[in-house]
Amino acid sequence: xxxxxxxxxxxxxxxxxxQFRQEHWQGSFAEYLDIVMRNPRVTRSAYQxxxxxxxxxxxxxxxxSNGLIRYRFFDDPQNDGExxxxxxxxxxxxxxxxxKSAALKYGTERRVLLLHGPVGSSKSTxxxxxxRGLERYCRSDQGALYTFGWKEDDxxxxxxxxxxxxxxxxxxxxxxxxxxxxxxxxxTDDFEIEIEGDICPLSRYYFKERLQKFDxxxxxxxxxxxxxxxxxxxxxxxxxxxxxPKDEKNQDSTELxxxxxxxKIAEYGTESDPRAFNFDGEFNVSNRGMIEFIExxxxxxxxxxxxxxxxxxHKIKPKKFAQTDIDTVIVxxxxxxxxxxxxxxxxxxxxxxxxxxxxxxxVTTLDEEIKIYKKDYNxxxxxxxxxxxxxxxxxxxxxxxxxxxxxKHHGLTLLQKMKLYNGKSLPGFTTENVKQxxxxxxxxxxxxxxxxxxxxxxxNALVVNTTATSLxxxxxxxxxxxxxxxxxxxxxxxxxxxxxxxVSVVKDEYTDxxxxxxxRAIAADxxxxxxxxxxxxxxxxxxxxxxxxxxxFTGEDEEPxxxxxxxxxxKIDIPDSRKDDFRREIMNYIGAxxxxxxxxNYRTNERLQKALEMKLFEDQKDTIKLTSxxxxxxxxDTQEKIDIVKSRLIRNYGYNEESATDVLQYVASIFARxxxxxxxx
Length: 681
Fold this sequence. Notes:
Helix content is about 50%, strand content about 10%. It is built from 28 helices and 19 strands. The strands form seven sheets. It has a five-stranded parallel β-sheet. Strands 1-7-5-6 form a four-stranded antiparallel β-sheet. Strands 2-3 form a two-stranded antiparallel sheet. The chain starts with a helix and ends with a helix. The relative contact order is 0.07.
């Protein structure tokens, strides 16, 4: 046996023929009634099925927020987060609430759902998630649904072209009795079976034809019906439709509602025979599932009339036929300019009245924006090039800053506002203050730079810097800034200049971040930090208890070392007037730990740890001669110390050899400039 044949045999052995048979079940109408009684939810409406699909994945509360719920469905767990939506928790909650209301038939099922937001804000991704989710869900036992066809004399089956619900075959006068029986016999009592809508014109034709044959006995007609499991598929145009505006001359409303099959008119003799009609418009196709309207507000008025009827009445009007029932979720999306046109057009009042608008803004939380870029630029995707720490962070930082409105609060910078939104705490600001900031900025996230632009520039930076083994923040920031000159969506120089200034703000913030990292890497000598901390605590204890400190070298009692204590406290901005309070707080904290039988460790106090690290850095900065990095000559002793710092950057912060060297040289140049300024004074 060839290797290829052996491989195919192995694959074949892993398949489950029984599962295939169950999924592709066909049976009689009576057998379908048995299925309905065992599982009434197979008869759900499109909105009910869509809502249940989202809820089936579960949800979880958003950490650090009151009442915000994240639906796991939008994390795209089935595809390893390929289409995950980051941030946007509130808009997604609004969206799911609309689906819930529609599933309960509170009225929103008769509306067009309009996702509105700037370009690149995930509107299409949300629609794609819903479509893929339906395809997946209908293949599960939970999401099963069925359709029907007509047995012909030659043994073939003519399937209902709109994939109608088999219970729609039951005549109106008998529906109440049938529903009462099914609900009484059903295995569960948490879902009530209802029969709504009528079959399509073609099935209606077959039903009437056979009703005449069986002298009006509709139960005999149902014996000629075959029921089968239905799988929704966008590619096969079953239950999922997508409509996109094109040139008005090449597009008409028959693309939505189907068209006459002129080749069959000769066979059946008239245009009004449903057998001479193709029920393959996007509305026909999307029955039982959903339809996505791309850039819905760019549609011609003729299409909008069909849209109004489909949403409000759940009916469409195929050419030459009566109104036809449909059951589909209508989701459209549009951007800001098109929506403004809708608002200003008085002829569009009917559409505005039947529309539920969900704003889908850009992400305004830094951590969530970083996740967008990490999804595409990570070690698995980017081979052969290391992405230096903070590279994606600074890109995300700049993108978020462009979307924020200037804070009205006096003394609060745009950068500080971004940090507050990201969950950081600032003196004088509570969570209520942050909520107020968000309320004041009503259009925040609806303008600014899209993630697509940032992704394009990160990609460009990866390609352009061919000799570098790593991608660093300055490479990306330079790309972001230079690209502003030709950015097609920036309409005035004032805005372009504002975005350039924000690049400078981000560079300054990045400088502070890496200075702190290098300082911590230099001061990462655990023994030295422990000794410094012990010395400080001994002096603070003596100071607060009005005692003296024993000199370890001379053995003599001395006054507490005020200069040492202040040199540490000043690093975290403790003013002289507050030093006594701070020292008492430290001693009270140590005392409380002692009562609980715990030993004090400087790492448990973030502020003190930072102060000790900065003090140790100051003490060691000169011995390591960091500024010598910017010169060509480095002595052996200094080089050894620099290599230790570099290894700490690589081990503790995620740098590689090149990026660690780059960041050390950058920070060294900053200190060199600082030293030069000090000498010039």
